[in-house]
Amino acid sequence: MRILSGLEEARFGFLGAVGGLPVDHGVFFDLGGGSLQVGRFRNRRLVGALSVPLGSLRVSDAFLKSDPPTPREIRKLREHVRETLDEAGIRALAADEQLVGTGGSLRNLAKVDQRASGYPIARLHGYELARRRLHEITLSLAPLRQKKRARVPGLNADRRDSVVGGGLVIETLMETLGADAVVVSGQGVREGLALSMARETLDASETVRRRSLDALAARFVGWSEDRAARREAFAAALYAALERRPKNELADALRQAARILDIGRTVDFFDRHEHVADLVLTTDLAGFSHRQVALLAAVVRQAGDEDERLGRSLAPLVTHDDEEPLERAAVLLALADEVTERTPPGSRATLACRVRGSDAVVTVAALPSWSVRGLGARFEAAFGRKLKLVPGARLRR
C-alpha cells in the first residue's frame, strides 16, 4: 500500500470524473475531506493540476466551530478559500470551457437540488448544478443545527457536519472561475485509477457514447447488430433528406434510438418503445449529457405512440420548442423501423429519399410491396408532405 500524492489524486480524479461526461475543455475539481484537487484539461487531456488544503472536513473543523456556524465564521471561511485560490493562480474559465466536479459534498448538494425541483432523471452523473442554486441551498443549510440538517431530503446524514463548509468552498471556486454551473460527476478517483490501468488518455465523447450504447444492447438477446446497423442507416438517410432544419443533437438521438430499439424485444415486442425509453432514463449511460438522454428517450417513446409526448414530462431538459422536431424524428424512426422489419435478412438493402413537389418519395431496394397506411397520415402531419414508398419489386418492373 502507498499514499497517493496530491497530483496523482488529481490525475486519477480527472480520468474518473471527465471520462464518462461529454465535456472536451474545462476545469475539473475533486473536493474531498482533506484537500481540493483542481485541474485544467483541453481536448479531454489533462494539461495541469494542483492540490490545495481546502477539503470540506478540514475547513469545517478550522472555521465552522459553532453549531450552527455564525455569519462571522462563514465570512472568515470564504475569505480563506478566496485567498488560497488566488495564491494558487487559478484562472477564470475560457469561453469554450466547462466546470466538472466530483466528491461527496458536491454530490449531496446536487441531490438536494434534484429532490427540491422534481427533476425528471434520477441519476446524478451529468447533472448540472447552477451556482445560484448552490448558493441558495448552502444559505438554507447554514442556519440549521447539524441534527436538523441531517433530515434534509437528499442529504446524507454523514455529511451534516461538513456539507456547509464544502458548499462554501465550491461556491467560492465557482466565483473565482466565473462558472455559472458545474457538471456533477458520479465518478472519481477509484474509477480513474481503474481506467488508468488500460489507458492514460480519454476517448472522444462520441466514442464513449457509442461504446456505452453497444454495451447496453449486448445484454439483450433480442438485439441484432445487422438489423440495428441497417435501421440506423435508414434513419440517418431519411433525416438528412427530409429535415429542413436539422439539428445535430436530434440527428444523434435518432441514430442512437434506431440502434438500440431492438433491446425492447427481449421484454415485450409490442411495448418495446416504452421499455427502451425507460431503460435509457434509468441506465448510467456514459458520455451522455442529461439532455441527450432525455432526447433519446423521447424519440424512442414517441415513435411507438403518436399520442405520447414524453418531452412534456422531461422539462426542463426538453422544452416546448423541441416538440415538433422530436415528433419528426420519432416518425422517421417509426418509418425506418417498418422498412427494416420488412427487408429480408441478409439482403442488400439501400434507401434513397427525395422531395418531389408535395411528395416525399422513398425508394428501398429489396423491399417487397407495402402500403404505409396509418404511418403515411402521421408522416404527412409531421412533414406537410405525402409519403410515397417505392419498393424494390416495383423498381425491377
Describe the structure.
- The chain is built from 16 helices and nine strands.
- It is α/β, with parallel strands linked by helices.
- It has a six-stranded mixed sheet, with helices on both faces. Strands 7-8-9 form a three-stranded mixed sheet.
- The chain starts with 5 loop residues before the first helix and ends with a helix.
Distance between the termini: 75 Å
Query: Helices and strands, in N-to-C order?
Result: HEEEHHEHEHHHEHHHHHHHEEHEH
Put simply, the count of helices is 16
Strand fraction: 5-15%
- How can the largest sheet be summarized? 6 strands, mixed
Low-confidence stretches: 393-397
State the gist of this model.
With 397 residues, this protein is of the alpha/beta class. Helices cover 50% and strands 13% of the residues.
Features:
397 residues, three-stranded mixed beta sheet, alpha/beta, 9 strands, 16 helices, elongated, disordered C terminus
What is the secondary structure topology, with strand pairs?
Blueprint (H helix, E strand, L loop, with lengths): L5 H14 L6 E6 L4 E7 L2 E8 L3 H8 L7 H18 L9 E5 L1 H14 L10 E3 H11 L4 H4 L13 H15 L3 E4 L4 H8 L8 H13 L7 H18 L5 H13 L11 H11 L7 H15 L18 H20 L8 E6 L2 E6 L8 H11 L2 E6 H5 L1
Parallel strand pairs: 1-4, 4-6, 8-9
Antiparallel strand pairs: 1-2, 2-3, 5-6, 7-8
